[in-house]
Amino acid sequence: MNLSPSSPRWLYLAIQRRRNRGLNGLYLVVAAFLIVYAILFPGLLSIGGFSKFSQNWFPLALVTMAQALLMLNGGISLAIGPLVSLGAVVAAISMGGPAGAFGGFVAVVVAGLVIGALTGLIVAYMRLPAIIVTLAGSFIITGVALLLLPRPGGYIPDWLSQALAGHQPTAFALLVVILIAWKLFLATPTGIGLYAVGDNPVGAFRSGVPVERIRVVSFAISGLLTALAGLFVAAQTGSGDPVIGTSFTLNSMAGAVLGGVGFLGGKGTMRGAIAGSLLLSVMINVMFFLGFPPVAQYVAQGVIIVGAVAIPVFASRWRKA
Amino acid sequence: MDVTMPLVEARGVSKGFFGNPVLKAVDIALYPGRVHALLGENGAGKSTLINLLSGALRPDGGTILMDGRPVTKLTPQGARAAGVAVVQQELSLAAELSIAENIGLGATPRRFGLIDYRALRDRAAAVSALVGLTEPLDMPVGDLPLGRRQMVEIAKALFRRPRVLILDEPTSSLSAHEAGVLSGLVRTLAAGGVAVLYISHRLNEVQALCDHVTVLKDGMVTADRSLADVSAEGLVRLMVGRDPGDAFPAFAPATAGEELIRVDGFSAGAVRDVTFSARAGEIIGIGGLIGQGQEDFLLGLYGAIPATASKAEICGVGHLLASVAAATAAGLAYVPADRKKEGLVLTHAISANLLLPSLGRLMRRGLRDRTGEASLVADLARQFSIRGDTDRFVQALSGGNQQKVALAKWLPLAPRVLLLNDPTRGVDVGTKREIYLMLRAFADAGKLIVLLSSDTPELVHLCDRVVVFRQGRVVATLAHDKASEEAIVGAAMGLGIEGVAA
User: Fold this and answer.
1) In this predicted model, what pLDDT tens digit does every residue of A308-321 receive, in sequence order?
2) Domain range list for chain A
3) R_g of chain A computed on alpha carbons
4) CA distances from B383 to B337, B347, B370, B489 (A)
């Protein structure tokens, strides 16, 4: 095959390499924070310390992916936190049932997929704004979670808690598996359709991309990731709690925005979002170790997020001027 | 050519939007191997016809035939399956995806459910080579300049191996070199049996490239003939030839008053190095094809976008107006084209809209002066013949009456200069006439009116002078007696027509 210099031998890999552009600054900041953290807390470099750290990060990474996925195709979800709670509740009440832990896992997966797909159907086919639909969804889901399990409780088998949140980096391994699955998904027509729909829905439609179907699929996958984050949180705490996920809604957006995912769709990368969630997670840990009072932590977090979004904007303006 | 059948044909198709007929019984037939030009002024119905042929819209009447068979419900998918590919003016690309992914989008070769990147690479490389795209295929489209994106769009159409290729102003953002590559490509495709429909405002390009021409005027076909023996001037005449009608008030030359606007070396947005002056009492027309910098010219004068000038004097101010507030204070008013988005608050009452610019002036001891407001609203409604209850939402009015409100609300500020951006777009004939009469009356009262219009007859019949823009520069300034439709359209398309003083 006679290839011109403009066609790389491994097109997919070349495309994936290009996607790092604009993210080097973020990678550097994340690395810097990690180094500071490792200096403050040398235990990070042990297996146990790394395991604990990645377990703290893992659910945030999942919900950030879930949020970034929606933002990439032009949507958003305000129901991330409640769905995490619901995932935890479903796990906690079904794992003690006749179907056992596996049955509970299936129940969580089904709950995430179905709720996500339903939301997607309403957004895509009834053409209602995602922010409103998921706002309503967040109330409904919270209500359902509270109905199912009015106060923290339920049952999570001890071995599952040990396996997921013990002294081995299982969470990190799972994250790697999920990232590989995402890479595969990006290599499907639906995967690139996701970007096209977010950036230019009319153009995508004219190109023959099934716009509505892709919206539904992205909401379903997003729901699945969120519910799985809930399952993990339940394993971590050993029980279900109907309001445990609340903080994840805003943190998922914060992670995605830190990672450079745009609110208007089609802009950003999943690797950026993951790095953003890592940054957020390390940032919280570092501030904790530096002895910031919790209130100051919130303020600092907000300032850093605004800064992270503003700096690239101003940088590009200066470059233009 | 007689033995071959058209690949796509429209017979007597018509289409209207909201009761406005846009196409009336139009016939067009695209034959294999023929490059067919579609010409017409802004708003002649070209885009609507393309949308009908590509299944994006359904005709209200008439039939579309594919390979000689009538198709009752043509969908975009159906048209694609029949081999029709359209390169629209608005690109259908996604900025974050690579060139290759964009080219293949919606039709990617796949293996085991995944995109077959190897096949995609080979086929995308092949079509990229055809259109002369040398950038790496893995480059995100967002990193390309506009002209190169247009080439990606064309490559994307070729990727689907079309039998019918519709190109809607493909060269508007291309460099001369890229346009040359494209012409070569179109010839190659036609030689290979592809039917090409080519829409362009560049007449020399059309003459060099096309075999056959269909000319649309006001939604009707005025010519369907071989291009062999038509001159560029002949084409322009076919595009504009129409009855002037008596929609316009009698023209009266302006009694030149005080000079209100004078700018030298004026640049703003797409506008480059324009020299312009106008006096009180004049109506100055701003013409040209859509998007040649006319709007930026008005916005720049109005201080709404950053502008520079080597010398400027506007309403007695010795420099450019830096902000909208400064412009309003100096006596300028701007009426935007998109009245629904920029000109009016649709969900507020007519009276509220009419009062908006004057709320600050009608104050008494820091409070609103209800009596003053009511009499002002009544005055404006009478003056602009806005009939009915002024407490209705503006939304409830017809397009023409909405435009009257958008115009009327500035009058209490007594502006000396009215900058009007296409005030009659989408306005019915009767209201158009009312608006023309008002403009005439304003000019007679000593106001300067700068009228940007996409409607050429308006420029011809209303204006003391017509300034024609092309690619951000003024290419012609035509006095009233020289401003024929032919001259304006010719200048807009870059033809040097006799009597045109640039």
Assistant:
1) 778 777 777 776 55
2) 21-320
3) 20
4) 22, 23, 20, 34
Per residue in A251-262, pLDDT tens?
999 999 888 888
- CA–CA separation, B211 and A180 (whole Å): 54
Put simply, the answer to whether B92 touches A188 (Cβ < 8 Å) is no
> Is position B313 within any domain?
yes
User: Domain range spanning residue B378?
Assistant: 345-413
Q: Which strand (E) or helix (H) includes residue B261? A: strand B259-268
Same domain for B447 and B358? no
Closest CB to B80: pick one of A3, A202, A208.
A208
Residues B437, B403 share a domain: no
For residues B31 and B4, the answer to whether their CB atoms sit within 8 Å is yes
pLDDT tens digit sequence for B23-72: 889 999 999 999 999 988 766 788 889 989 988 888 898 899 988 888 88
CATH number at residue B31: 3.40.50.300
Residue B247 touches chain A, beta carbons under 8 Å = no
Q: Do B86 and A267 touch (CB under 8 A)?
A: no
Candidate from B32-36, B115-119, B457-461 with smallest mean pLDDT: B457-461
Is B96 within 8 Å of A184 when comparing Cβ atoms? no
Alpha carbons A161 and A236: distance in angstroms, whole number: 6
- Which of B397, B413, B429 is the last residue in one of the domains? B413
Find the closest chain B residue to A268 by CA distance. B96
Do B232 and B95 belong together in one domain?
Answer: yes
B110 in the same domain as B13: yes
- Cα–Cα distances in Å, from A108 out to A89, A114, B147? 9, 10, 50
Per-residue pLDDT band at B428 (split at 50, 70, 90):
low
Could you name the CATH architecture of A21-320? Orthogonal Bundle (1.10)
Judged on CB neighbours under 10 Å (0-12, 13-18, 19+), A102 is exposed
**Same-domain status, B303 and B167:** no
Mutation target among B54, B84, B105, B133 for the A interface, most CBs of A within 10 A: B105
Would the pLDDT of B143 be above 90? no
As for how many domains chain B has, the answer is 3
Flag if B156 and A207 touch (Cβ within 8 Å): yes
**pLDDT tens track for B383-426:** 888 877 888 888 777 777 888 888 888 888 888 999 998 888 76
pLDDT digits (tens, 9 = 90+) for B444-457: 888 999 999 887 88
Among B413, B430, B455, the domain-final residue is B413
Dist CA B285 CA B468 (whole Å) = 8
Q: Give contacts of A4 with chain B, Cβ < 8 Å.
A: 125, 129, 134
Cβ distance of A15 and B100 shorter than 8 Å: yes
Residues of A in contact with B88 (CB under 8 A): 206
| For range B453-464, the mean pLDDT | 85
| Tokens read off for A230 | 């809930």
How large is the average pLDDT for residues B439-447?
88
